[in-house]
Design goal:
Blueprint: H1 2-21, H2 37-63, H3 70-76, H4 81-109, H5 115-123, H6 126-146
Helix pairs in contact: 1-5, 2-6, 4-5, 4-6, 5-6
Length: 149
Amino acid sequence: MTSLLIHAGLGLLTVVLFFRFNSHLYKAGWPGAGVTVSEAVYYLIAVGSVCAGWYFNVKYVSAYPQEAGWIHFTKLGFANPAAGSISQDEIIPNVLLFPLWTMIDGPRRGLKRTWLYFVMTLFTSFGCGIALYLAAQERQLRWNKAMGK
């Protein structure tokens, strides 16, 4: 359980850093500073993804207290063909495509320190990282428009 607490702490740290690095987007007083419907949906998906993932993470650590770890967890993801199919469908986009997408597309839009989204997925969930990236991207587009960029 100690590893889960460390993991949770690192996940919380990445989310705090997300809001700190993008603090200009979350200050009031600029046109477009309010939360849009689609942005609210992104935040709800982020929270739901973390909750669902952590439910299963706690169950995993409880079921395998001696073996619990990244290697064992990943091996179980490939324990049968169905698990392997969904695991590779999660791992490849998360480890390869998502970092490329955020680190190439994000700076083009004006987002800063976009490496954080990938790191965040390691401690929260892939869904959370994507959802927060999309929320920040939407806010950044509104910020750019409001600032005449």
